[in-house]
Amino acid sequence: MRKLRARHVVWDWNGTLLNDNHAVLAAVNTVCAQYGCPAVTLDEWRAVFSRPILACYEKVLGQALTQADWDVIDQRYHTAYRLELESCGLAAGVPNLLHQWRDGGRTQSLLSMWFHDELVPLIGKLSLTDLFDRVDGLRGYNMGGSKASHLVEHLKAQDLDPAEVILIGDVVDDAEAAAQVGAQCVLVTTGMMPRDRLETAGVPVTDSIPEALALIDA
Fold first, then answer.
1. This prediction's pTM
2. What letter would DSSP give residue 141?
3. What sign does the CA torsion over 200, 203, 205, 209 have?
4. Which uninterrupted H or E stretch holds 28?
5. Which helix (H) or strand (E) holds 23?
């Protein structure tokens, strides 16, 4: 696999730096139970996961859903997810490899679709704040859509040249967002999509954070 060159990494959070698959699954199955549907396995959820997320629930629940349905689903999902959040640990290699990246004179930031007001104190609690030049989570309402517009603003706020940036994430949407802004991308198989679907994005796919960073030359 060819080496990539970058001076800045934009990290995804859920499923990338944070190992939260069990929390996601528990929250999804809370929604399934509310609709009287059987629980799904992690592999079943990963098989249908995409953005917009509403479409995933339509497949799992077997019915068309409205924006009003989404409002209820979103609330129930996040309430259940928060109950599991304390049990979520960091991905293999984190934070040591992030310290090494920064100590090598390179920069990094965090862009998440988790709520900004909850993300900031969480990374503080995990002693990660000083590793990132900027942290952006979700501000305002979102229908579980693309990360692309958020990435545009994230890079603009740091005056970064997208050509010198690599986004490391766990879903195809991360690769699509990076492509839209002219950045590079590496995907990891630790989150919500299996390898075969990640490989359709046409970017390098690895099984861990250490493998992802090993692909990058500064």
1. 0.94
2. -
3. negative
4. helix 21-34
5. helix 21-34
In the structure, what pLDDT confidence band is assigned to residue 129 with cuts at 50, 70 and 90?
Answer: very high
CA 184 to chain centroid:
16
CA distance 75 to 114: 13
Residue showing tokens 């988790």? 114
Q: What is the rounded distance in angstroms from the CA atom of residue 151 to the CA atom of residue 19?
A: 22
77, β-bridge pairs: none
For the record, the structure tokens of 72 come out as: 């209820």
The predicted-structure confidence for 68-96, as pLDDT tens digits, reads as follows 999 999 999 999 999 999 999 999 999 99
Please count the residues of the chain.
218
Give the Cβ contact number of residue 87 at 10 Å: 11
Contact residues for 187 (Cβ-Cβ < 8 A; gap 6+): 168, 169, 170, 171, 172, 174, 175, 193, 198, 201, 203, 204, 205, 206
Closest-CA residue to 149 (of 140, 209, 9, 58): 140
Q: For residues 100 and 105, what is the distance between their CA atoms, to the nearest angstrom? A: 9
Q: Is 75 exposed, middle or buried (0-12, 13-18, 19+ CB in 10 A)?
A: exposed
Angle at 186 between CA 150 and CA 106, to 5 degrees: 80
Signed CA dihedral, 110, 111, 114, 120: sign only? positive
What is the SS3 assignment for 5? strand
